[in-house]
Fold this sequence. Notes:
- By secondary structure, the protein is of the alpha+beta class.
- It contains 4 helices and 26 strands.
- It has helices spanning 180-185, 219-238, 250-258, 267-283, and strands at 2-6, 9-14, 21-24, 31-32, 43-48, 51-56, 63-65, 68-69, 73-75, 81-84, 88-92, 107-110, 115-118, 123-125, 132-135, 140-143, 148-151, 157-159, 162-167, 187-194, 202-207, 213-216, 248-249, 291-294, 297-300, 302-307.
- α2 (219-238) crosses α3.
- The longest helix has 20 residues, at 219-238.
- The N and C termini lie far apart (49 Å).
Amino acid sequence: xxxxxxxxxxxxxxxxxxxxxxxxxxxxxxxxxxxxxxxxxxxxxxxxxxxxxxxxxxxxxxxxxxxxxxxxxxxxxxxxxxxxxxxxxxxxxxxxxxxxxxxxxxxxxxxxxxxxxxxxxxxxxxxxxxxxxxxxxxxxxxxxxxxxxxxxxxxxxxxxxxxxxxxxxxxxxxxxxxxxxxxxxxxxxxxxxxxxxxxxxxxxxxxxxxxxxxxxxxxxxxxxxxxxxxxxxxxxxxxxxxxxxxxxxxxxxxxxxxxxxxxxxxxxxxxxxxxxxxxxxxxxxxxxxxxxxxxxxxxxxxxxxxxx
Length: 308
């Protein structure tokens, strides 16, 4: 078992079987962590020949086995600790697993710890307290010594002082050519932008797994999203190299927002607009990481866009 640590306390464990465990910030990982020093697809842990190995995917901040930088595939001795980036710690715990582990298509988001994992058939103990999620034929229930209640997919709930959300990811769209690299990093959101709507400019973020949405109406933020959405759509249609898909230059974004006055704007003004938009998305329940900032450019990391 691979344990995620907070200090010396194990806050979550995932089984390591023949199926590799992919770890990183991206939500599609088997173990998704909230740590900006960890890459979106940071490392993989797997079993082979009765031994457990870790491989770093060439990340900037690296992976470290007992404080030795991971280079290639390195065996993890039982009880050893692995550090990803600067702040995320894992430990290999040797616990016997008698049967192969099967998974459902449901993801449990631990909103307090900032991690997610797939649910197993049957009962799934929750961290802290004595509650567990039980998978029924057509629904999921939260079982505690005092009650049994149905958990609604896409609706956050609390247990033992922690917040959770149960989601069923939308199937990934058919991928052709060079699209897989983008969609493997993208959030399962759809962004629709209208600059000339009946009530003025607006953009809508929709979570494809649940239909939950958030509207952005601040004009500068809407125009920023329009520029990014149009760039993403154009690059996908033109078969742009995957690593370059969706990147819009800051100078083009500034021109889109302020037109001829763009050159008179302080360089930090765009950063302020971007920061406020990310903060708004986080407050609205969406991951601000869906807007990625690079050196001199930005892009949307979402599954689908629609612009007027």
